């Protein structure tokens, strides 16, 4: 996340997965990297071969995707709109809402902050759930953005509490936007089932849990009137027919989805332990698709560099109040031995420096 003085309207935001930049930075060819810099599942839903007719067709809103997605999210079909990635929705939504102050996590997916600022809203940053509650209950903000679980901090806010915040905001005509791009492994925490509720917007992504970030498919769940306004702002054929065809099958594949949830729970738990055992001076927080460690800014930067020099790409986040965060995506079984070897070398290097 950028520091408060940076003008996000003009700066190109940095995201994980940029192997071309990493290659330039560390002088390692793209194909040699082990990329742990994103929260995208390294196990993708197995896409079947796409029939020619699907490639030839323009998107058809009557193809059944809406019903399958509504079943998966547990909401009504009329309260759901497919978009080309949740990014597509989050970028436009702030311009559809009345301008005001919006509560925003101080560390989080930066595209939210940029979108709200670009739409003329004023940002009220919060560092903790208590601060968020305070901003809402005292009427200091008109709207609130919650990333649940948050990327990169991994923090999760309880759904009961979120519903209470939503009701308080809605009383004054405000909105609660919950970004659930990383929610699929813990659907019990989702507020998708509450949609449509006046004043509530939920964003979902097919990119992360399904490992299909390149497909560019996501959903906005909100009251129908807002979805109509959103659709008017988006180009026609915004989501391609092949993306709809693939997304529909992935969402309907209960057996794969169950197995993926279990795999993510067990791999992320192990990965958390493996990282915490090696970098004890960082404080780790686990989430199903990434593990993030917070600590001294210099130390985080050094860990990121040491790993990078050895061909393992993590993601380091900007300094906030003297601390940085390093985020580690999940390694596959095949890559794990090499990754652990590199982690051991870097951890040893740290001990020598400290010692
Ligand atoms: C928290 C969060 N929300 C939304 C997005 C956008 O994802 P997509 O457009 O692929 O759904 C990202 C991408 O990294 C993210 O981290």
Give the gist of this structure.
By secondary structure, this protein is of the alpha/beta class.
Number of helices: 12
What is the CATH homologous superfamily assignment of the largest domain?
Type I PLP-dependent aspartate aminotransferase-like (Major domain)
Rounded to the nearest angstrom, the distance between the terminal CA atoms is 31 Å
The CATH architecture category of the largest domain equals: 3-Layer(aba) Sandwich
Following the backbone from N to C, one meets helices and strands in this order, namely HEHHEHEHEHEHEEEHHHEEHEEEH
Bound molecules: pyridoxal-5'-phosphate
Helix content: 25-40%
Question: Beta-sheet strand percentage?
Answer: 15-25%
Question: Major β-sheet, in short?
Answer: 7 strands, mixed
Low-pLDDT segments: 1-5
Q: Spatial order of the strands in the main sheet?
A: 2-8-7-6-5-3-4
Structure description:
With 355 residues, this protein is of the alpha/beta class. It folds into two domains: 19-43 and 256-354, Aspartate Aminotransferase, domain 1, CATH 3.90.1150.10; 58-252, Type I PLP-dependent aspartate aminotransferase-like (Major domain) (Aspartate Aminotransferase, domain 2), CATH 3.40.640. The chain has helices at 19-26, 52-56, 65-73, 86-92, 110-118, 129-137, 159-171, 224-233, 241-252, 254-278, 297-309, 336-354; strands at 34-35, 80-83, 101-105, 122-126, 143-147, 176-179, 200-205, 218-221, 283-287, 290-296, 312-313, 315-320, 323-329. The strands form three sheets. It has a seven-stranded mixed sheet with strand order 2-8-7-6-5-3-4, sandwiched between helices. It has a four-stranded antiparallel sheet with strand order 9-10-13-12. Helix 5 (110-118) links the parallel strand 3 and strand 4. The structure holds pyridoxal-5'-phosphate. The site of pyridoxal-5'-phosphate has 12 residues, from helix 4. Pyridoxal-5'-phosphate binds next to helix 4.
């Amino acid at each position: 996340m950028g520091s408060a003085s940076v003008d996000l309207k003009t700066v190109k935001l940095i995201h994980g997965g940029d192997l071309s930049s990493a290659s330039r930075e560390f002088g390692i060819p793209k194909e040699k990297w082990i990329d742990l810099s994103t929260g995208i599942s390294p196990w993708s839903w197995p896409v079947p071969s796409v029939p020619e007719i699907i490639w030839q067709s323009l998107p058809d809103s009557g193809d059944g995707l809406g019903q399958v997605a509504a079943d998966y999210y547990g909401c009504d079909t009329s309260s759901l709109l497919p978009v080309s990635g949740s990014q597509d929705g989050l970028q436009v939504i702030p311009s559809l809402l009345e301008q005001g102050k919006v509560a925003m996590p101080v560390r989080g997916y930066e595209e939210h902050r940029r979108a709200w600022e670009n739409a003329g809203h004023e940002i009220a940053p919060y560092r903790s759930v208590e601060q968020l509650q305070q901003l809402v209950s005292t009427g200091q903000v008109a709207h609130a953005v919650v990333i649940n679980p948050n990327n990169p901090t991994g923090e999760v806010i309880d759904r009961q509490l979120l519903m209470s915040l939503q009701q308080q905001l809605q009383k004054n005509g405000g909105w609660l936007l919950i970004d659930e791009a990383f929610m699929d492994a813990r659907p019990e925490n989702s507020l998708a089932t509450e949609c449509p509720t006046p004043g509530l917007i939920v964003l979902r992504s097919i990119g992360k849990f399904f490992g299909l970030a390149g497909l560019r498919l996501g959903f906005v769940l909100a009251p129908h009137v807002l979805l109509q306004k959103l659709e008017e702002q988006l180009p026609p054929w915004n989501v391609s027919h092949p993306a709809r065809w693939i997304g529909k099958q992935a969402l309907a594949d209960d057996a794969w989805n169950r197995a993926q949830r279990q795999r993510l729970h067990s791999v992320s738990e192990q990965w958390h332990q493996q990282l915490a055992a090696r970098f004890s001076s960082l404080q780790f927080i686990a989430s199903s698709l990434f593990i993030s460690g917070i600590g001294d800014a210099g130390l985080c930067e050094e860990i990121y560099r040491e790993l990078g020099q050895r061909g393992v790409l993590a993601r380091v986040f900007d300094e906030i109040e003297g601390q940085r965060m390093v985020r580690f995506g999940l390694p596959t079984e095949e890559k794990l031995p090499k990754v652990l070897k590199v982690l051991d070398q870097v951890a040893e290097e740290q001990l020598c420096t400290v010692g």
